Amino acid sequence: MLTQIVLPGVVEPDGLLVDRRPLPEPGPGQARIAVEASGVSFAEQQMRRGKYYDQPAFPFVPGYDLVGTVAAVGPGVEEALLGRRFAALTKTGGWASDALVDAGDLVAVPDGVDPAAAETVVVNGITAWQMLHRAAKARPGGTILVHGANGGVGSTLVQLARHAGIRVLGTASRRNHDAVRALGAEPIDYRDPDLAGRVRTLAPNGVDAVFDHVGGAGIVDSYRLLAPGGTLVSYGTAATKNDPGNSQLPVLKLIARLAWWNALPNGHRATFYNIWAGRRRRAAFQARLREDLGAVFGLLAEGAIAAQVAARVPLTQATGALRLAKSGTVTGKVVLVP
Ligand SMILES: NC(=O)c1ccc[n+]([C@@H]2O[C@H](COP(=O)([O-])OP(=O)(O)OC[C@H]3O[C@@H](n4cnc5c(N)ncnc54)[C@H](OP(=O)(O)O)[C@@H]3O)[C@@H](O)[C@H]2O)c1
């Protein structure tokens, strides 16, 4: 039997439903994955409130990513995949005991890597790697500013940057400063009214890149803190998460502002990172994901970066997992285990 968690509409965490039905058969090009780990990210918190800028119509099964082993393959898929462990970026559908995934979307998990550990770096690792190396093209010896340095994406980004020989200033709430320091970053309180002044004291010439998932008024400081030729990578608008109305509008406004900044002749770059950009050119998109997530998995396997597993929660207790993830009391990712 398939067990899955259904988000029926805008509900409190205890409104999630547990649904059981016969196992689905994989269609052409698909593999059925026996899921070993999925996770709770900011996206599911927003989807539950109907506030994620790009979510499907209710009801649906949430779960942005998963790790598991191939239990069955459909026509046209190599049987050699059976029994092997893979990860996939799914956007939805991960919160299930079993999931159908296009075989081309699978990324191999190295032998010996724990499924929950691997899970913490799927969406977080792809996002962090692509922002650091593709969007900002950060270089060893540079200095970057990472907002939310103890979060899922932020903590991965800090570790990847430190591994690449980059100095990191990281914002977080005060209670998380020790965790940020342990990752190798210099913590700054994001509630400090003189946050920008604090960054300028630590990096008087500005920073080579800023990674900003907050948006709102603070994005102006993020831009102004850049060193000559620096890059602002914006990737969210957490500041507007409670705003009423259309959830796409704040993102569109932000993108328009970045475009305007890019037209200024000062050598700075400002870009909005979207993990799904380019997905219409499917083969190239899948190849890029395999390369980038493969690189992150490689670093995890060799111990160059550490997984931040906040807790392992049984799938059927997804309500508790959601509550725990949004409590602000944990560092790293809450992982759901079927
Ligand atoms: N564009 C894309 O393709 C893409 C892909 C993946 C994720 N994202 C975005 O990335 C963001 C982070 O996701 P996540 O799953 O890593 O979330 P998360 O684990 O909940 O982390 C959020 C972090 O934000 C910090 N934070 C809260 N308010 C802040 C503020 N005013 N200034 C600076 N930091 C603040 C929190 O710090 P404390 O815990 O210390 O309060 C926490 O470290 C979300 O906005 C998500 O939508 C975007």
UniProtKB/TrEMBL annotation:
Residue ranges occupied by any Enoyl reductase (ER) domain in the UniProt entry: 9-336
Pfam family, one: ADH_N
InterPro entries membership: ADH-like_N (IPR013154), ER (IPR020843), GroES-like_sf (IPR011032), NAD(P)-bd_dom_sf (IPR036291), Zn-ADH-like_protein (IPR051397)
SMART domains: PKS_ER
Superkingdom: Bacteria
Annotated PANTHER family: QUINONE OXIDOREDUCTASE-LIKE PROTEIN 2, SHORT-CHAIN DEHYDROGENASE/REDUCTASE
Record-given protein name: Medium chain dehydrogenase/reductase family protein
